[in-house]
């Protein structure tokens, strides 16, 4: 989806040609899976972080075009709305230097972005949903200039027969009901997306484990409790994104519709090929752009996959030598609250993937349990209870503190990561965050409980703490 397109309106002939190209490339992909055509060496780690431009009053400011021109860095790109941008960190091996590399790269890119924003009279902020955002700000007037965003909006509305998108989210005390006649509500959701390049032989197992981990990750990282002044889920980003681009696709075996933003409906059984076959047969094309390119670059297949936003999404990329590889993109965490928090979240995800991959067969936690766990964690954060591998309902905090965090430390240590950095990020930051119960969502809820609905003041304090690289469990109220 990062590639720009040349037009925004499509004919039936475009759709027919795209389907032919997609089928041809999926057949080629089938051959790669059966002939071991993918990269087989080691693992690589990468990430994307979406962020906000805000003004002196801590409200969103629609200036990403000028901002990106000033930054002029291919690692910093546009997002759906003019309020947002995305920074990318190049892939790095999972080795001793990973933690310091992630921290250094994030801080360098972030400092560059912040400097250019200040030169424009703006500031930059990483958070799951900007607390000062108002519904009236999310209009097509503020959609980014790139053609693909305009085309995506048009085709999603067309697939819904122009019916408006209904956003309905219920929290413990508040309820939100709004209608959108475009996809701009999706711009309210800003994420940390973790990439994990894995060998073909382990890709299916890692992909299934990513689903099991989605609930602990949602609870651990929750940072989006407010939307348009309403206190909703601890990670309101999850239901908002699912509803903001809700389009018809297919129905699973339980009779539930499976949309384009989805947790999915089952584990894979043999390989990630199953997901790409589901893409082909279950999801209509949204952007039927036909490329004059070598079919082996899978341009149509990758574009189509980029318009299906699974919370755990398989990706196909190509290395410097042109060899294809498989990546798992974990889309559950929100952005923020600070760079040290995000580095801790990323390391925990990698360590837990390594720790659980040989340990958790699909039978240990059914897909339905993993799914229910995920939405419970998104709703209740660190206060959630989940069903774990022993079949018992446990507080998610106990699962994290007694099993997952120690296991992640051991697995990363076995990969050679520096012990002092593991202690800093996974014990001093992550374990203390869990023990205190203070992730970003809990801090925001406590701030508003203490001071009333002053979202501007809360955003200001968030920015001050984030600028000083203070982990959220140390933020004062």
From TrEMBL:
Gene3D superfamilies for the chain: 3.30.590.20
Highest taxon, organism lineage: Bacteria
Any one GO BP annotation for this protein: modified amino acid biosynthetic process
A Pfam family of this chain: GCS2
SUPFAM superfamilies per UniProt: Glutamine synthetase/guanido kinase (SSF55931)
InterPro entries registered for this protein in UniProt: GCL_type2/YbdK_subfam (IPR050141), GCS2 (IPR006336), Gln_synth/guanido_kin_cat_dom (IPR014746), UCP012666 (IPR016602)
GO molecular function: glutamate-cysteine ligase activity
Protein name (Swiss-Prot/TrEMBL): Glutamate--cysteine ligase
Source lineage: Bacteria, Pseudomonadati, Chlorobiota, Chlorobiia, Chlorobiales
């Amino acid at each position: 989806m990062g590639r720009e397109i040349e037009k925004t309106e499509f004919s039936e002939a475009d759709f027919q040609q795209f389907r032919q190209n997609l089928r041809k490339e999926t057949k080629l992909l089938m051959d790669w899976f059966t002939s071991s055509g993918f990269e087989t060496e080691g693992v690589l780690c990468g990430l994307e972080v979406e962020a906000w431009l805000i003004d002196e009053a801590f409200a969103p400011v629609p200036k990403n075009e000028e901002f990106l021109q000033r930054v002029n860095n291919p690692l910093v790109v546009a997002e759906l709305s003019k309020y947002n941008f995305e920074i990318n960190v190049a892939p790095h091996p999972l080795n001793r230097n990973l933690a310091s590399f992630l921290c250094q790269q994030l801080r360098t890119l972030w400092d560059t972005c912040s400097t250019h924003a200040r030169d424009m009279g703006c500031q930059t902020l990483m958070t799951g949903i900007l607390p000062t955002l108002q519904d009236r700000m999310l209009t097509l007037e503020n959609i980014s200039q790139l053609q693909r965003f305009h085309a995506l909006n048009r085709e999603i509305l067309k697939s819904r027969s122009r019916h408006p998108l209904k956003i309905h989210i219920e929290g413990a005390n508040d309820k939100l009901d709004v209608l959108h006649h475009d996809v701009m509500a999706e711009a309210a959701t800003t994420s940390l997306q973790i990439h994990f390049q894995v060998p073909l032989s382990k890709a299916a197992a890692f992909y299934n484990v990513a689903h099991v981990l989605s609930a602990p990750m949602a609870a651990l990282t929750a940072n989006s409790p407010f939307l348009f002044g309403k206190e909703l889920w601890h990670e309101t980003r999850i239901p908002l994104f699912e509803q903001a681009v809700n389009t018809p696709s297919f129905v699973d075996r339980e009779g539930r519709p499976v949309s384009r933003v989805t947790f999915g409906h089952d584990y894979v059984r043999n390989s990630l090929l199953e997901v790409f076959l589901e893409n082909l047969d279950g999801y209509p094309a949204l952007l039927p752009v036909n490329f004059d390119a070598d079919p082996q670059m899978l341009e149509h297949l990758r574009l189509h996959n980029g318009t299906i936003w699974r919370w755990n999404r398989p990706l196909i990329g190509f290395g410097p030598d042109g060899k294809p590889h498989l990546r798992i993109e974990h889309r559950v965490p929100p952005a923020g609250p600070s760079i040290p928090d995000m580095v801790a979240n990323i390391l925990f995800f990698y360590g837990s993937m390594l720790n659980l991959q040989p340990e958790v067969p699909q039978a240990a936690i059914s897909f339905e349990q993993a799914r229910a766990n995920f939405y419970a964690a998104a709703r209740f954060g660190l206060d959630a209870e989940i069903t774990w591998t022993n079949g018992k309902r446990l507080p998610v905090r106990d699962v994290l503190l007694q099993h997952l965090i120690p296991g992640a430390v051991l697995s990363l240590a076995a990969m050679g990561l520096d012990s002092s950095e593991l202690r800093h990020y996974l014990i001093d930051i992550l374990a203390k965050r869990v023990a205190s119960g203070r992730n970003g969502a809990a801090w925001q809820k406590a701030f508003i409980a203490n001071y009333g609905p002053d979202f501007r003041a809360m955003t200001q304090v968030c920015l001050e703490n984030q600028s000083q690289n203070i982990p959220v469990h140390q933020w004062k109220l």
